[in-house]
Automatic annotation (TrEMBL):
<dbReference type="InterPro" id="IPR033391">
    <property type="entry name" value="FBPase_N"/>
</dbReference>
<dbReference type="GO" id="GO:0005829">
    <property type="term" value="C:cytosol"/>
</dbReference>
<dbReference type="InterPro" id="IPR020548">
    <property type="entry name" value="Fructose_bisphosphatase_AS"/>
</dbReference>
<dbReference type="GO" id="GO:0015979">
    <property type="term" value="P:photosynthesis"/>
</dbReference>
<dbReference type="GO" id="GO:0006094">
    <property type="term" value="P:gluconeogenesis"/>
</dbReference>
<dbReference type="InterPro" id="IPR044015">
    <property type="entry name" value="FBPase_C_dom"/>
</dbReference>
<dbReference type="GO" id="GO:0042132">
    <property type="term" value="F:fructose 1,6-bisphosphate 1-phosphatase activity"/>
</dbReference>
<dbReference type="Pfam" id="PF18913">
    <property type="entry name" value="FBPase_C"/>
</dbReference>
<keyword id="KW-0460">Magnesium</keyword>
<dbReference type="Pfam" id="PF00316">
    <property type="entry name" value="FBPase"/>
</dbReference>
<protein>
    <recommendedName>
        <fullName>Fructose-1,6-bisphosphatase, cytosolic</fullName>
        <ecNumber>3.1.3.11</ecNumber>
    </recommendedName>
</protein>
<feature type="domain" description="Fructose-1-6-bisphosphatase class I N-terminal">
    <location>
        <begin position="13"/>
        <end position="201"/>
    </location>
</feature>
<dbReference type="GO" id="GO:0046872">
    <property type="term" value="F:metal ion binding"/>
</dbReference>
<dbReference type="InterPro" id="IPR028343">
    <property type="entry name" value="FBPtase"/>
</dbReference>
<keyword id="KW-0479">Metal-binding</keyword>
<dbReference type="GO" id="GO:0006000">
    <property type="term" value="P:fructose metabolic process"/>
</dbReference>
<comment type="similarity">
    <text>Belongs to the FBPase class 1 family.</text>
</comment>
């Protein structure tokens, strides 16, 4: 046995240790947020294990129901949703849950209530399960506005009011990326320990990237600024090299690559989906929050994404997010169109 290596392994920065270290910087903290996060982490571990077994466990076939978005549900979505709802309720720290899978928000019973609202997509990109493409869980956390009876207004807040956001990607490894408003950190699950280890401290997105990521199959329905931007990526007029196209079709995987390598991810509005396709609360906001925390930006085609005030829990919005300079370019094209 390599005792030196084993000793090193116990000195790792686990996510629990990391969050407790952060908590100790706030003497007034009661540890509620830490407890809530540990329940989210447990949910991610459970779903990671289920995703890895999906092909074997015959979980793949369709559950036969369609969710509120009209998408056919995979059994794994249903399972992941139940896992997160139960994990969040049992933490005793939440009062309202909004899930992509549930038409209505879930109000936690008074005896188990806390001060946090959690919005989440339990399994984003689940249509990719069959072919082994990375999928993930996305979440955002708000604090309720006041101590009274919680109402739906408590979650219909702009993204800039979020206290934390993150995603867990189930891919070649299981990676959890998290921000509580003081930078972005990435953790990777060590399966032999069952612990998330800090592997990507203080992630910063490059100011400019060489990659653009968009579903070009929708090009004939795009508006003019999006079409001009993509044309510019492919045929730059300033003598620079064209950008590379990378599009996985699983938001977590595409955003994760954008965060680490730089570039821009676009899901614009088009004639078919005039409000865009991605949901504001549990897709656009958490990813925009992470991008801004990492030094990038996020734009809806009209405004800063995090300034948007949602009116419905499943509202959709166009989104352009990624490297600061690349998003500036698309903003300039929309400004010129005005």
């Amino acid at each position: 046995m390599d005792h030196v290596a084993d000793a090193y392994r116990t000195d790792l920065m686990t996510i629990t240790r990391f969050v407790l270290n952060e908590q100790s910087k706030h003497p007034e903290s009661r540890g509620d947020f830490t407890i809530l996060l540990s329940h989210i982490v447990l949910g991610c571990k459970f779903v990671c294990s289920a995703v890895n077994k999906a092909g074997l466990a015959k979980l793949i076939g369709l559950a036969g129901e369609t969710n509120v978005q009209g998408e056919e549900q995979k059994k794994l979505d249903v399972l992941s949703n139940e896992v997160f709802v139960k994990a969040l309720v049992s933490s005793g720290r939440t009062c309202i849950l909004v899930s992509e899978e549930d038409e209505e928000a879930t109000f936690v019973e008074p005896s188990k209530r806390g001060k946090y609202c959690v919005v989440f997509d339990p399994l984003d990109g689940s249509s990719n399960i069959d072919c082994g493409v990375s999928i993930g869980t996305i979440f955002g956390i708000y604090m309720i506005k006041d101590e009274g009876e919680p109402t739906i207004e408590d979650v219909l807040q702009p993204g800039k009011n979020m206290v934390a956001a993150g995603y867990c990607m189930y891919g070649s490894s299981c990676t959890l990326v998290l921000s509580a408003g003081r930078g972005v950190n990435g953790f990777t699950l060590d399966p032999s320990l069952g612990e998330f280890i800090l592997t990507h401290p203080d992630i910063k997105i490059p100011n400019k990237g060489k990659i653009y990521s968009v579903n070009e199959g929708n090009a004939k329905n795009w508006d003019s600024p999006t079409a001009k931007y993509v044309e510019k990526c492919k045929f730059p007029k300033d003598g620079s090299s064209p950008k590379s196209l990378r599009y996985i079709g699983s938001m977590v995987a595409d955003v994760h690559r954008t965060l680490l390598y730089g570039g821009i991810f676009l899901y614009p509005a088009d004639k078919k989906s005039p409000n865009g396709k991605l949901r504001v609360l549990y897709e656009v906001f958490p990813m925009s929050f992470l991008m801004e925390q990492a030094g990038g930006q996020a734009f809806t085609g009209k405004q800063r994404a995090l300034d948007l005030v949602p009116k419905k829990i499943h509202e959709r919005s166009p989104i352009f997010l990624g490297s600061y300079d690349d998003v500036e370019d698309i903003k300039a094209l929309y400004a010129a169109e005005e």
